[in-house]
Amino acid sequence: MERSPNPRARSTQPDAPWQGRHLLGLEDLSAGAIASILDRAQVHAQHAAQSREKSQALKGRVVFNLFFESSTRTRTSFSLAAKRLSADTQDFSPTGSSLSKGESFIDTARNLEAMGADILVVRHPTPGTPKLLAENVACAVVNAGDGAHEHPTQGLLDLLTIRRAKGRIEGLTVGLLGDIAHSRVARSNIWGLSKLGAKVILCGPPTLVPRGWERLGCEVAHHFDDILPRCDVVNVLRIQFERQHAGLFPSVGEYSHFYMMTQERIKRARPDLLLLAPGPINRGVELTPEVADGRHSAILDQVANGLAVRMAVLEMLGGERAE
Length: 323
Known about the structure:
By secondary structure, this protein is an alpha/beta fold. The protein is built from eleven helices and nine strands. The chain folds into two domains: 140 residues, Rossmann fold (3-Layer(aba) Sandwich); 149 residues, Rossmann fold.
């Protein structure tokens, strides 16, 4: 499908089920494709609330998790999602592998494919690595986060969490707060939210929300207290210290003073504000403990919905290859 120059533009494609060979990002998916994944994830979420019985959808399939960056929620939930679908799973770690002997990333992946891999779930610090992999293997590839580029399943689980809590996405105003410049979560959220009809406001210090984001159809703001009363949802993004090579604000204390979600700020927000935060969360930096655990928080709902989303993605990719 051709990439739309305007991410807020509606898809002209029929809302048929997503039938992609890979999930590399939300930028190239239509609104209908995104909605179909959310619909399937909703089915899995409802089933999980009623039963722990496994699906047989991927019985006989093999899913490899290739994680070149640390992960708790994403890696564990992909593994659990595959097992809930009755797939065989194997975690791959670069430590102690033949990569240390000089084997290339592509050769490693091809060897895993030769062992019977049907789906490769990949997290890598270099943007574009999942796309490169998809161009060199025949099996399905899922992007579990590539540098600061995209994190599509996180974007999808955020969308599902909003839709389940609010009943819709279209017409909502969603604030993405914090380190936008280094956040792959922000990029996937921007594409997904915009395509489904939400208004997106990016907010943070100018060094973390530099000029140019407006071209993606977003509003850019630098004063959180000014935009908070307008937001139906606020997604609090973690400061990506590991991706920064220089101090982009004077101190953590100063950042927290202007941008931390506190109980006082909650009082000035809409009564039905929905608060999201992709983990890991830094309590006392991006949000206070009482807010993280308060009634507006859907942080643990995001974790549960992440399992449902990853089940949907693996099932839809595995089903596509099975036909």
